[in-house]
Structure formats: structure tokens, C-alpha cells
Design goal:
The complex is a heterodimer of chains A (318) and B (534). Chain A has 318 residues and is mainly α. Helix content of chain A is 73%, strand content 0%. In chain B, the strands form 4 sheets. A 6-stranded mixed beta sheet of chain B has the order 2-1-3-11-4-14. In chain B, strands 6-9-5-10 form a 4-stranded mixed beta sheet. The chains are: A mainly alpha (318), B alpha/beta (534).
Chain lengths: 318, 534
């Protein structure tokens, strides 16, 4: 009511727009009330704790508290950059993710395309179920399984190698084998789960397009290439951006559980280093600095990839 | 539109339930906090309750302490241990234990101090010297020296008998922030060197006296089927996981373990031996054993439980442990004898032994404790014979009997298999006195025999990790974070053969680059301080 009165009075346009917005808010106040909850959630649990980041620039002592501890400037960052392990940590963190992206990202897409092409519905459901059940195995059990499978005393893989006349290989304490085992088991565990989104996206592609392609004489591969993939491309790009968003946060628990002195060369990553020196040895400021460094790289990557995607693929998060 | 409403509803529902669950999770914690506060308030009111300097009860009106403790897998719940039940009646001090399992204990302990949610005291807590300094100077732990003077007659007596205790736990400023577990019986300071005598006899071999003879014996164990099952499945030699083997065999290569670190003391000179030729010889020897499968191939990935199982299997040739308990359980102990350390290429024969103040940082009192005097008297009880017997053996008649003035577990009790459940010493690190008078179980005749083989080779004095002032401690921490990690990783690789000894010079120069000389100087200064004080 108020706004109509205002219009009649011929008030400047800016204010009228303002009040129109106000009206649209009040008329859908229930939606905004709902929005309040997630905002509160973010403020309390995500933005609130951020004031603790300042210990990265302080010499934190629990007795003095976060505010009371003396400032240390960039000393902790310098110590990390000068550290003997800096390059190794950085390389391992990046390479594990790069390989994951290279090998683990496309496989769910391929799986989804395959499942989509299976004409027998019962069989395709069976394949879906079988591939996604491993997702529910907990990390500890998963690492236990890896240890059993690759064990040198009676593990199936080494038994097989011995049966072929080879010598048992000590996979678990070899630095070369760590990354393949880590990424391979990740793929095995999560490909089915991740393919669900792609399968859903493919089923949203207009069936008329497939029929048209068929009539035009497109082969099955051509239909996949020219219809299915372009149809799910936006979904692929969004998921890729999201994946890159936690590029530097690799599966910390799993790596920690698989780590030993012999494979440390390739399994030492920033997050496990933060855990062992920060939580176990009580160097909170030092490891807060490392964690912050990690997050900054993450954020930068996310922004860059998003901008690239917006330009090239015309799909982006924002 | 309908669809959107559906999603909106679902998402609100999810968010709401998350928020609610977060609130729900917070509630019990809040309640506990308020509880604690009210109980503290009532405790303040009772403050007139005087602490008697000796005799029992310690306090006339019952008081309550909250104590954070580590629980080993073999232990039962602490409140059910007879020692704490009986001592509560005796002392009039009720203890509420906050029990934390050994796995993840260091993490819990760090978080306790970082979040400043302190218990009244920490028990069996392995607070490292650096942590003692950090939390002591930060005011979270209180200095104990005056309390020991006034309220800990047993501990005071022990510190007079063994001067190395005081030097190990006193900071340069003269404060004591934590009490160690004290070991006066030699046998509890060493890992016995258990050799499979049955296998030696079967293959008609002598007990090895040198590292070369040991190598030959292990090779015979591997090849000549001493267990007689026609298969090559014998495990010639194993050790506790990780690099424990380096310190165990180091004595044969002239490598000592002074000041709680890889340090040799020669003419009052501190020498960190990690990059030395002797260490290279040792690692090459271990590499030889490992690559010829004489040394357990699972050495670097085995857990404690797996190691104990191997001890009890009877299929192991040579290994190291303090007691013969795992062998007793499976009744294979007759196969084994304890042997002396073997002599190395330069004739060195030194046995690795823990210092008398063995378990550092085993007990500490925090700043929130309202009754430090009573708490000190409470813990001091366990440094006397009566308390340490109660702690290790439980109740007379129910769990143990006295023979010639020394307690022995009853056979009927041992048969239940509950020995580790009733005492906090099982699993290590409990703050108490381990003397001849209470070690009948860990020191049965077989172990005493094995210790006799080690006695001639025990170090004259073993210095515990020294206490540094806060600044030095921080410096050492920064240096050692990198150095230790590098040393452990590279040594493991040298032994496993994934790193060739051609890289030894690189190893040495990297240690130099990591300022190992500065570290050595810091330890030298600390050692000079100790010598001056004594």
C-alpha cells in the first residue's frame, strides 16, 4: 500500500525502487527467514572462528590466550619457506592432487557414460550399486584393506606375483608405489558415488536429440561425443571447479594412516605435516601459518579456475 | 514453483537440524562447566580443611580431585583399580579420573593446554621437558619444589639418594614442574637381549660374542631350519618398530644415548653422533642384516601388538624386551636366555639403559588445583614401598601374598589373566617407585639372570634429557623438528637399502646445513650446567 502512495506522490525513482524491494522482501518474508539460518550458521561456525587466524602472526601461548600473545610478524612463514621440507611438502601436495585430477576426475564421467549406454536396466542398476557401495567404507577400514591386499605375507597381490614366478614387492614401504596406491584406491572407492551426479545429468538430456542424431546416422560413439558430453558439460565444469576448490586439502586421514618413514618421500604432505608438528608437538603458531598459506593457495586457484571457466566454457560458480 | 518450495523446505530442514544438533552437542559441555564451577565454589568454602604433613587421612574432610590420565589397552577402568579404591578411603581424597586411551593421547594432552581447560592434575602424562617449560612458565603448571620439600617425604628421600633425579627435572631457574616415574631396580632400566637357546643348541652354536658371530648365528637361524618343520619360516631377529634397533645395537658400535638424545659424552664433551663414522658402520651392519632378511622385514611398519605376538610365538631367534611376560603367556620362555651385548668391530660393548628418573613428566599439578599440598601428599604415597606395592599388586590376600617381605602375585589371580587390569603400571609411565621390593613380577628369576648378563656393560651414569630455559627450549625444538625428521627418515632408508651409502656425505652435509653444530652447542651448555650443579 505504502509504495503505491509513494508512486502517486512522484518521489524520486531511487526511493521507489528501494521500497519496491522492501515490499518484495516483506511479501516473501518466510523465504528470508529461512535464509537467516544458513547465514547465522556461516557467521557463527565459519566466520567467527576466523579471528583465530591471527595466531599465525603471533607467538601463541595458551596461557596468554589468542589476544594476549605477542606479535611475531611473518617469522613463522619465513621459517616454513626456509624449512628443509618446504619444497617436498609443496610438491607432494600438488602432485597428489594433480594426478588425482588427471586420473580420478574423468573416470566417474566415463563410468556414467557407460552405465547410460547399457540397454538392460536391471544390469545397469547392478553396475551402479556395485560401484558405489565402496563409498561407505570408512577410511580406517579402507587402509586396513589396502594393508592386507598389498601385504608381503599372503596378501593376494603378492601371492599372485609369486605364482607368476616373481619376487614379492614391498608396496607399502616403497615411495614409488605410494601415489599410485593412494590414488588408485581413491578411484575404486569413490568412482561409483561421483558418477551418480553425471548419470542424473545425462538422464536430463533431451531424448529427442539422441533420436535426431540416430536418424542422421550417428554411431554410438558419435552420439556420446556429440550429444551426451556437451549435454553434461556444465555439470562437469562446475564439479571441476569445486574439486579445485579443495585442491590443496588432500585426504589427510588416509595419507596419515598409510604413512611410514620409508614412503615419506612421496607421502609427506602439508596437512599431515601440520598435524604432526602442530597438534602433536604443540607448535600452534607455526602450523597456523602453514595452514593459512595452504588456504591462500587454494583460494587463488579457485578464483583463477573460475575466471577461466567463465571465459572459456561460459559456466562458472559466480 | 512447487518443486522449488520442496527444495527450500528440505534445505531449511537440513540446516535447522544441523543447528539443533550443534546446540545439542554443546549442551552437555556447558552443563559440565557449570557443574565444575559450582563444585569448585563449594571446595573453596572448605578451604579451612587442613592438610596433615604426615599420617593418614591426608585431609579430614573429604576433597575431590579431577585427574587426567592415560589408559593403556591392557588396563581396566581406573576407578575400578583396587589401589585407587583403597587409597581413597585411606587418604579421604576422591579422585575423578578423566581417562584417555594411549592412542591419540599426545593430541588430547596438547589440546587440553591449548584450550586451557585444565584438570587438577595430570597422571601418567609423559609431559616432555619442552612442554614442562612451556606450560610451567606460561603458568598452567605450578612449581613443585616447595611442595616436595614440605609434603613429599618419600620423593625427597629418593632425590637425595639419586642426585640425577633433581638435575633431570629442575629447570635452569630452579623450578620443578613435573614428577617422573623413578626406577631404582636395574632390570627395569634395560631391554634384555633374548636369544633362542633351543635353536642355538639344535644347531650346535655358541652364544655370539661379537657382531660378526651374531651375523653368522642369524644366518644359521635363517637357513638351517632350527624349528624343524622343514620350511624356511624362522624369523632370525626382530625389534620394537621404527628405529629402536639403532639405540639397542648402538652400544656395540660405541654409540651411547646420553641426555635423552643421540649423544656421546667424552671427557665432558657433548658429541651428537648421528653423522659420525660409527653410526655409518652401525647402519651398514643393520642394512646387511635387513637386506639378507635376517632382520624382520616388517620392522618399520609393525605395531607394538604385532611385536609382542612375535615374542610369544617361539619362532623368533633374537629380540629385545624388558620382561619375559609375552613369552610366559605362551609358555615358550624355556627356549630363551638373556645374553650380553655383542662386541662391535672396535670392541665396544655398551648396554643401553634408561636413566633412574625414567618416565619424565609422569605427574604434574595445574594452576586450577585448589589443594596442591594434598595432591602432593597423594602422589608421594606411591614413591614409598607401601604405596608402590599397593599400586603394583593390589590387595593382599586377593591379588598378592608376601614372601620374605616381598609381594608376589597369587597364582590364582594370575590365572585370571587380569593382571594388567588392576594396576596402572601395566602399559608404562605411571608415576611411582619401581624398586627391588616391588618387582617380583617384572623381575622373575629368568629376567634377573638376563639382567646379570647385562650388568657388566651398564653405563656408569645415564643423564636424562636436561631442562632448558624457555628460549633455548624453543630453539632446540625448531632445530630438532627438522633434524629428527630427517635423521629418522634417512636412517630408515639406509637400513632398508632404499638409500645407498654413497649418499652418506650428502646426509652429513644436510645435517650440517640443518645446524646440527648449534644443537650440539646447546646440549653442551646444558650439560656444563648439570656438571656445575652437581
Amino acid at each position: 500500500m505504502k509504495s503505491t502512495v509513494a508512486k502517486k506522490g512522484g518521489v524520486p525513482r531511487l526511493q521507489s525502487r528501494h521500497s519496491r524491494r522492501l515490499k518484495s522482501i516483506t511479501s516473501r518474508y518466510d523465504l528470508y527467514l529461512m535464509l537467516l539460518l544458513p547465514i547465522a550458521w556461516y557467521l557463527i561456525f565459519h566466520y567467527g572462528p576466523m579471528y583465530g587466524v591471527q595466531i599465525a602472526f603471533k607467538d601463541f601461548s595458551p596461557a596468554k590466550g589468542i589476544i594476549g600473545s605477542p606479535w611475531a610478524g611473518f617469522a613463522h612463514f619465513e621459517r616454513f619457506f626456509d624449512s628443509y621440507y618446504f619444497w617436498r611438502l609443496l610438491w607432494n601436495t600438488i602432485s597428489i592432487n594433480l594426478y588425482s585430477l588427471l586420473f580420478a576426475f574423468p573416470i566417474p564421467i566415463i563410468l556414467a557414460l557407460l552405465v547410460n549406454e547399457i540397454p538392460n536396466k536391471a544390469y545397469s542398476k547392478l553396475v551402479q550399486n556395485v560401484t558405489y557401495i565402496p563409498h561407505f567404507i570408512s577410511v580406517v577400514v579402507m587402509v586396513g584393506m589396502i594393508t592386507l591386499f598389498f601385504s608381503t605375507n599372503g596378501g593376494p597381490i603378492n601371492t599372485f606375483i609369486e605364482a607368476l614366478g616373481g619376487k614379492p614387492i614391498r608396496f607399502l614401504d616403497s615411495a614409488e608405489a605410494f601415489k599410485p596406491i593412494f590414488i588408485g584406491s581413491n578411484i575404486w572407492q569413490s568412482m561409483g558415488w561421483q558418477s551418480i551426479i553425471y548419470i542424473a545429468a545425462i538422464s536430463g538430456v533431451n531424448p529427442q536429440l539422441y533420436e535426431a542424431a540416430k536418424i542422421d546416422g550417428a554411431s554410438r560413439l558419435q552420439r556420446i561425443w556429440h550429444v551426451s558430453i556437451p549435454g553434461i558439460l556444465p555439470v562437469i565444469v562446475i564439479l571441476l571447479i569445486l574439486d579445485i576448490g579443495h585442491f590443496m586439502n588432500v585426504g589427510f586421514e588416509k595419507i596419515l594412516l598409510m604413512q611410514n618413514n620409508l614412503n615419506l618421500e612421496s607421502s609427506d604432505v602439508i596437512s599431515t605435516f601440520v598435524y604432526t608438528t602442530g597438534i602433536l608437538k604443540g607448535e600452534y603458531s607455526y602450523t597456523a601459518a602453514i595452514g593459512l598459506f595452504n588456504s591462500i593457495i587454494n583460494l587463488t586457484l579457485l578464483v583463477l579456475v573460475n575466471r577461466f571457466a567463465r571465459k572459456k566454457a561460459e559456466t562458472s560458480l559466480w | 514453483m512447487k518443486k522449488r518450495w520442496g527444495t527450500a523446505l528440505v534445505s531449511t530442514f537440513v540446516v535447522c537440524s544441523m543447528l539443533l544438533s550443534a546446540c545439542g552437542a554443546n549442551k552437555p559441555g556447558n552443563e559440565q562447566n557449570t557443574n565444575k564451577q559450582t563444585s569448585n565454589n563449594t571446595q573453596v568454602a572448605e578451604d579451612s580443611n587442613a592438610v596433615s604433613a604426615d599420617g593418614f587421612p591426608i585431609v579430614n574432610e573429604s576433597i575431590k580431585l579431577k585427574i587426567f590420565t592415560r589408559v593403556a589397552p591392557v588396563n581396566g577402568p581406573f576407578p575400578e583399580m583396587p589401589v585407587f579404591q583403597d587409597f581413597e578411603k585411606m587418604s579421604n581424597i576422591q579422585v575423578e579420573f578423566i581417562e584417555t586411551p594411549t592412542d591419540g593421547f599426545p593430541e588430547k594432552k596438547s589440546l587440553l593446554f591449548a584450550s586451557n581447560e585444565l584438570p587438577d592434575a595430570l597422571y601418567r602424562s609423559n609431559i616432555t621437558p619442552l612442554e614442562q617449560i612451556r606450560y610451567g612458565t606460561g603458568g598452567q603448571l605450578i612449581p613443585l619444589q616447595d611442595l616436595i620439600e614440605g609434603y613429599a617425604p618419600n620423593l625427597k628421600q629418593l632425590m637425595e639418594t639419586y642426585p640425577e633425579i633433581r638435575s633431570a627435572i629442575t629447570t635452569p631457574e630452579g623450578n620443578i614442574y613435573a614428577i617422573p616415574g623413578i626406577v631404582s631396580v636395574g632390570s627395569a632400566r634395560t631391554d634384555k637381549k633374548w636369544m633362542n637357546k633351543a635353536w642355538l643348541d639344535k644347531l650346535e652354536l655358541e652364544v655370539p660374542e661379537t657382531t660378526d658371530e651374531l651375523y653368522e648365528v642369524l644366518k644359521a637361524f635363517r637357513d638351517n631350519d632350527p624349528n624343524g618343520n622343514g620350511k624356511q619360516d624362522e624369523l632370525p631377529m626382530t625389534s620394537r618398530g621404527g628405529l629402536a634397533i639403532v639405540n639397542t645395537l648402538g652400544g656395540s658400535f660405541g654409540l651411547d644415548f646420553q641426555l635423552g638424545y643421540n649423544i656421546n659424552l667424552e671427557d665432558d664433551k657433548v658429541n651428537i653422533w648421528m653423522g659420525s663414522e660409527r653410526n655409518k658402520e652401525l647402519l651398514m651392519y643393520l642394512n646387511k642384516l635387513y637386506s639378507e632378511q635376517l632382520l624382520d622385514q616388517d620392522l618399520f611398519i609393525q605395531t607394538e601388538a604385532q611385536y609382542l605376538a612375535k615374542q610369544g610365538s617361539g619362532n623368533t631367534g633374537y629380540f629385545f624386551d624388558q620382561t619375559n611376560n609375552p613369552m610366559l603367556e605362551t609358555k615358550v620362555n624355556d627356549q630363551y636366555i638373556g645374553i650380553s651385548p655383542v662386541a662391535g668391530p672396535h670392541g665396544d660393548r655398551l648396554q643401553l639403559a634408561a636413566p633412574v628418573p625414567r618416565d619424565l613428566g609422569a605427574f604434574a599439578i595445574t594452576s586450577v588445583n585448589k589443594y596442591p599440598e594434598a595432591t602432593m601428599r597423594w602422589i608421594d604415597f606411591f614413591f614409598g614401598d607401601e604405596g608402590s606395592t599397593m599400586l603394583r599388586f593390589g590387595r593382599e590376600g586377593e591379588h598378592y601374598e608376601m614372601k620374605d617381605g616381598i609381594p608376589y602375585y597369587l597364582d590364582s589371580f594370575l590365572a585370571t589373566g587380569d593382571q594388567g587390569k588392576i594396576t596402572p603400571y601395566a602399559g608404562g609411565g605411571a608415576p611411582h617407585l619401581i624398586s627391588e621390593n616391588v618387582s617380583s613380577y617384572i623381575n622373575p628369576p629368568q629376567v634377573q639372570e638376563a639382567q646379570k648378563a647385562l650388568d657388566p656393560y651398564m653405563p656408569k651414569i645415564r643423564y636424562q634429557t636436561p631442562m632448558f630455559d624457555e628460549q633455548t627450549a624453543q630453539k632446540i625444538n625448531v632445530l630438532r623438528n627438522d633434524i629428527d625428521k630427517y635423521y629418522e627418515e634417512q636412517s630408515t632408508k639406509f637400513i632398508a637399502g632404499t638409500l645407498s651409502f654413497d649418499k652418506w656425505e650428502e646426509f652429513q652435509s644436510t645435517l650440517k646445513k640443518m645446524n646440527i653444530d648449534e644443537l650440539q652447542q646447546l646440549y653442551q651448555d646444558a650439560y656444563d650446567n648439570i656438571v656445575k650443579k652437581n
